[in-house]
Write a structure and sequence with these properties.
six-stranded mixed sheet; Ald_DH/histidinol_DH; Ald_DH_C; Aldehyde dehydrogenase family protein; oxidoreductase; Ald_DH_CS_GLU
Length: 476
């Protein structure tokens, strides 16, 4: 069977790109080629921007109820096409099919329904006479065209996080999916035909150069990326050239702070779930476990046993907890980081590739690390978790905050006052108490420091895709 060549989606149709360079899309479970994708050129990006700009003239003036109906229809169509989306994404990520179906497709449809409702709830200050003889009011308006870049770890769900608030607010968009996982986003484009007007959502495939062309194009008023810190810095710098707004959801190095008094076995099992989910390829995943010294050794023993019980391998085997790392470059990066561990660090379990085919890596627990070690300070984005002891609440918070990332964290304790104090003092955009990683459409998600700025989900996320205008009128 011939390897399919993917196409861009511009102005409601799948179209061949202007460029001839092709990317290899590889199944990470086998390392085998499954598709070819174009590297879209500046001309392709310009075509997509032209379509989005033209469509905005109509879509930007639709009523909130019209946008709501379109998004609700799209959500229903996503549910109906779940199997096709799952298969497309599985080819590119190797994730277990049940995980994709539940945590991305069903969750994505649900979140899109939230954004559909949010389209009708945008608010501003009430009108009033703040100067004699003058009435002022606030208009909350769509920005216009927005440019968006999504990552490879949750390709479908992250596309929903981008298009949902943008379309609900009345914007049109040009989106580039990751160069290794474009197929489920193209399924979303296919499903949108006949539901979204032509040109409202445009998908261009490509590499970093294509993303840069989107960011630096003069048409978008905002560019949004979910990705690495390095990519976010590049987007911020590119956006600054034309003073467009940037919306950045970047990396994480999430700590879990475990205090004395918890049920050690239960806590170790839960933290293992939230650490190794999706092979640790989640910017909110637990990567550092900080444990009170009085229960440190007991916790490590329990946590290592839990890690060994979370096997990786074929998505067709229901006993496997997570699938492969996404691509050969990322796999090599994780292998190098583990190989570069300092002599004082101890690999309590794991540390090796699983099998000889595909990009599978063992659940790995590293102890006796120091705060300055690269494995503690730098994002690994794989199934590699460090465990460190702490002596006091102040010590725990200091260690947790002493990284450049500030996206997610969690507190594990039976003491309410401890939970309240520590959740206040943790310098992270999200703090969970006795749980981790769970998200809901109604609550915001986004970080501080080098984890970026701007919020996904919630009304805050929708507001990020709007602009504020003051209008004043004389009464006579």
């Amino acid at each position: 069977m011939a390897t399919p060549t993917l196409k861009n989606f511009i102005n409601g149709r799948f179209v061949a790109p202007a460029g001839t360079e092709l990317l290899h899309i590889v199944d990470p479970t086998t390392g085998r080629l499954v598709a070819l994708a174009p590297v879209s050129t500046a001309a392709d990006v310009d075509d997509a921007m032209t379509a989005a700009k033209s469509a905005f003239r109509t879509w930007g003036r639709t009523t909130p109820s019209e946008r709501q109906r379109a998004l609700l229809r799209l959500a229903d169509a996503i549910d109906a096409e779940s199997d096709a989306i799952v298969e497309a994404q599985h080819r590119n990520t190797g994730q277990p099919r049940a995980t994709i179906a539940a945590d991305e497709v069903a969750a994505g449809a649900d979140q899109l329904r939230f954004f559909a409702g949010a389209a009708r709830l945008l608010e501003g200050k009430s009108a009033g006479e703040y100067l004699p003889g003058m009435t002022s009011w606030v208009r909350r308006e769509p920005i216009g065209v927005v440019g968006q870049v999504t990552p490879w770890n949750f390709p479908f769900l992250m596309a929903i996080w981008k298009i949902g608030p943008a379309l609900a607010a009345g914007n049109t968009l040009v989106l580039k999916p990751s160069d290794t996982t474009p197929e489920s986003t193209l399924e979303l484009a296919r499903i949108s035909q006949g539901i979204l007007p032509d040109g409202v959502m445009n998908i261009v495939l490509g590499n970093g150069g294509t993303g840069a062309a989107i960011v630096e194009h003069p048409v978008p008023g905002l560019v949004s990326i979910t990705g690495s810190v390095r990519a976010g810095m590049a987007v911020a710098a590119g956006a600054a050239k034309t003073l467009k707004r940037a919306h950045l959801e970047l990396g994480g190095k999430a700590p879990a702070l475990v205090f004395a008094g918890v049920d050690v076995a239960k806590t170790a099992a839960a933290i293992a779930d939230f650490s190794f989910y999706n092979a640790g390829q989640d910017c909110t995943a637990i990567t550092r476990v900080l444990v009170h010294e009085s229960i440190h050794d007991e916790f490590v023993e329990a946590f290592v046993a839990e890690a060994r019980g979370r096997t990786t391998g074929s998505a067709d085997d229901a006993d496997n907890y997570f699938g492969p790392l996404n691509n050969v470059n990322h796999f090599g990066d994780v292998v190098r980081k583990v190989a570069a561990l300092p002599d004082h660090a101890v690999i309590a379990t794991g540390g090796h590739q699983v099998g000889t085919e595909g990009f599978y890596f063992e659940p790995t627990v590293v102890t006796q690390v120091r705060q300055t070690d690269a494995i503690v300070q730098e994002e690994t984005f794989g199934p590699v978790i460090t465990v460190q002891p702490f002596s006091s609440e102040e010590d725990a918070v200091t260690l947790a905050n002493d990284v450049n990332y500030a996206l997610a964290s969690s507190v594990w304790t039976r003491d309410h006052a401890t939970a309240m104090r520590v959740s206040r003092d943790l310098d992270f955009g999200a703090v969970w108490i006795n749980t981790h990683i769970l998200l809901t459409a109604e609550m915001p998600h986004g970080g501080f420091k080098q984890s970026g700025y701007g919020k996904d989900l919630s009304m805050y996320g929708v507001e990020d895709y709007t602009r504020i205008k003051h209008v004043m009128s004389a009464l006579e």
